[in-house]
Fold each of these.
Amino acid sequence: MTTETLFNKVLIANRGEIALRVLRCLQQLGIPSVAIYHDSDKNSPVVRQADEAIEIFGDSPSAAHLDVAQIIDICKRLGVDGVHPCYGFLSENAGFSRELANNGITFIGPSAEVIELMGDKITSREFVEEHGFPVPPSVDMDADAPGFIDAVAAMGFPLVVKASAGGGGKGMSIVNSKDELESTLRVAASEAEKYFGDKRVYVERYFENARHIEVQVVGDGTNVVHIGERECSIQRRFQKIIEEAPSPALDAAKRKEVCEAAAGIAKAASYVSAGTVEFLYTSNGEFFFLEMNTRIQVEHPVTEMVYNVDLVAEQVKIAAGKPLSIKQKDVVMNGHAVECRLCAEDAFNDFMPETGKVLFLKEPSGEGVRFDSGLYQGQAITTAFDPMLAKLIVHAPTRQQAIDGCIEKLKELVLLGVNTNSEYLIKVLEHAKFIEGDIDTGFVGTYATDLKKDELSAEQQRAVLSAAMLSDRSMRLIMENTPDIYASIGRWSN
Amino acid sequence: MTPTYVLNENTHAVELVRRSDDITLEIDGHLVDARIHWLDRYQCELTINGKSREVYAAQDDNKLFLHLDGKTFQLDALDEFGAGDEGGAGGGRIKAPMPGVMIESYVSEGQQVNDGDALMLIESMKLQTEIKAPISGTVKSIGFAAGASFDKGVTLIDIEVPGSE
């Protein structure tokens, strides 16, 4: 480890598992850290473990994390010279990046211009197309414009409506017929305006049996390296729930083609920092540019484990002006990694969000196991934030071993107090088509009838009910206070 | 008092019949031999009819959470009076499918609506959902104003169907 100073102090402008992930990196690099938190997160691990922790205020926890002026004020007060935005919140906000720059603070990410270019789905598509990379067929005009509905319907169904400024599956919906179009556009525009402050939407042809394959890139403004692809086809509500690296769909030649296209796009944009180029990959091996995410991704750990890199450390060093430490020739794949997103939801009931409180937590561990979580005992799980609670990543020599490892570790994970999708994730991981690697973004819907909760056996049901009764606080109290000799309670009599 | 639990929407009675070294329980009329050994506040070894399992248990009010056989189970302990359902959903009463926040109501009280009309936009975990009328009728009441948050299962809107009273 070098002793040179990368930053005097870095503020982590986020919460939950990713804030903790970035904190670990800052600690390893010996950089003093600042956590910011809303009152509802005051007991979270990142707040306890960061060198300094400052409360932020707002009408809602999210509003507090989106308050640029407040965050910059904290930076100035504390002598912060770098801000890591993580993902979500201000991570793809060019205005935030500029405002930091105006105050002499470094945004740990790409330039504001690149965020703007790639953050808008319409301009980014145009940019990519101009540079000779493939984009899917689409219509992009003002939704209020006359002829819009007809132009869109002429493309044929199904279609996907996307918020131009969107990302992360927000503001996206599939339309199967002209009848649904109007109401879908209304919801999409409302979501788009609410989350992104920009109600422009555009409509693209939807490929039903396509995969979502994305490529990790890292650039320093001069050079760009690609660090393999991730297969992220297992999604619900356009949000990924299981990701893996490498993709079971690509052979070495195809991998090279897709990865080089991604690096080409990043290079055309003079990309700085870590980024992800997302592609739609059709069943006949065609691929189209979907979007570029100009931030660290939720699923970055699968890449880190397979390629033995630290993407966050790379972001920090590059932001401090260092050149890329990774050379393309040194990017060597080793084994396979699978990530499962643990979410607070009733996955067997249309993924309805669940709320609760973390009453007990036992994290899984072992060789090749990574559990990225910001969970803590006593934490209230509310609807204020995204339902993702933690990520389990397992790295193993083969894909099947990584899948088996995930199943084993999901069973080992104990989280009591809020319902999660753990059992659902296991059903997906055990599915024959998943095991074959025969997956596409429609997987969750296509195999919905297979992905059902197991019926309890009579024996298992008795075990559950016995455990419930014997652990029930009121019963435990009675039993602990009743000496055995007088224990013939209930209706027993000789 | 017979302890009663709701598991996967079914109600089960679990009665303590006898306790000496082993505990005998009667579950839905079926006798079960059980033995429990607590390792700490949350973890125990549970033996049912000779088969042992590692069990984790935690409780929040009347909600019981258990982890065994690699799965998590949530049960509701019913009190003596058995709370039960708070009255079924009426023909035109729409209950919240999840906890969330009211974003916008497209209709107002007294307004006529038709089956399939969009009524309101709600949001939960950053996901917006449009609620549509399941039936034609008159809007009798709207449960929440824009910006108000609500719990799962509460009435979001009540639509009165002519002649159904």
Amino acid sequence: MSFNLERALEDLAEAGASRRTADDDALRSRVAVMTTRIRRRRALRQAGTTVVAACAVGALALGVSYLPGVLRGMPTGPAASPSGTLATDTGGIDFQTVELEALCGTTLDARQLHLLTYSPEPSDPVEDDGGYLEIVGTSTEVNGAAVELEYTLPSSAQLRMLGWTVLVTDDAGTIVGGMETGVVAEDSPSGAERTTATVNMPTTSCADGEPLAGSFNLVGIAESMGSRWDLNFAERVVSIPFPVELGGEELATDPLSAVFACNAPASESIHSLPDSGWLTLAADLPEGPWASGELPEIHGVLGAADGRTVLANVGQGVSGAVVDAEGIVVAFVHSDSGDVGLVELGPESTVELQSPQLLTVCNPDGSQQYQQGLEGDYTFWPFVPASLKEVVDSEGNASSPSDTVIVIANPQEVTFTK
Amino acid sequence: MARWESMLDELVRDRGRALVGYAFLLCGDTTEAEDLVQDALVKTFSGRLPADAVISAEAYVKRAILTIYLDGFRRRKHWATIRHLSAVPELDEARTEVLVTERMHVFQALGSLSPRERACVVLRFYEDMTVRQIADHLSLSVGTVKRYLSDAIHSLEQTLGPVEHELAEEFETTPVQGRRAR
């Protein structure tokens, strides 16, 4: 008699999904945790381009401070930069960080880069494969180019420092670009399982500095040091390749930062046509105060001015810059909708926008972090990024711009509460 | 509440158990299966779902489960205990014993497979996919999938005896020598 594997697998799946106790709702009990993680990621996806360096969420998840370039005394930013031995207490481990200059032009060998070492050497073999790094995604559609990474720490590990690197490889696996994004220092809380970061996408060649264009793979590297089972450890973990299309210079541009950027004065000339691509935005802000953890939905109406008809890709919601009494941008409100659609706007056609909102607060280094604790009175500038596809004026003359513009509505005073 | 939040809630409520069962077949541990499903849900809903339907989201989550598992889900371990498998209610004792024994054998046999072999077996015999669909799903060639399935079935049959399957002729390829150093 033959064995019925299909039936046996169904039976095994059913048994495996059954908890051994009455706690049969384990997955449902995790929904709140999942929702928080997803909100954080979605907020950072929207915030991606205004992140100068990295570790916004790393700081959030680990409760640590971000020290870009301080520990290694080197610059951070879009250009490939050299690296070396971490200038801190290495716990007896001689740990050389990756050197982008040395890697440039070589073939990526992930196995060779992988590292997990201990000091002192454990007396018993360590049956563990260490941490796990994943490139969660990229955002390149409206807001520019950013890479989201998630590092799952080795079990029972407590970090003292963590650095991120993103490499760009071509189809042959040759490293053609890269960016090192800094180091997080100080202790992670016990029990922290993972940390994430949103970093700028490297878009230029590490060989000649020219913009990269075409199909490439992104490969993330996380380098961590800390303690584990009373041992000091250092780890370098490499993600699997993440395919990406790079379009040269245009991906590196961030039109939002020209108007609103973290810790910078808000633009004063906000209504000047045709800077907004002949588009107009009217926003209907709910009455405050706004609970920063549960922001109200903002209703907006996007239209075209001067009798023009405009085709553009826009998101489903209204975003906004939060500006303090000194005129400095201190936070952003992002539409919690990643969907971007092509709309036609004209003299008699407008588009209504509305979606849930997420708040990210500016860090001193210019990065942003998902936060629910903003308080006080601020000026709120609603805006919508739009990628123009076609503009037809009132006389029927058509043009095909490919600009991304920031359409801004009138500001209003808003009170935030925790 | 955002659209994705209600979709997530509905998916976990209605299909969470099935997703954990699917993940369990891949990783072999209930707690790890729940972690795997959680990570897959976060990954899926952090991205852009192209459709509203829960059934579509479930397909994306299943794909994410498979991807995370095959990419080296770090908590994947060999099975250590099967005590929890005996917690199936409403079966008489003799029948329970037979089933638990059978599950043990299936469980052990699956544990002897490589991750990709195991994934192919689950997709073929649990998800009822064709060889072509599995190849598309895993970004492998049809020949490679046949080889994985052939090797896997040979391995399973050492524990379970002859395995009933309709596509025996499909798997008649030469097992790769030396691949299975277990």
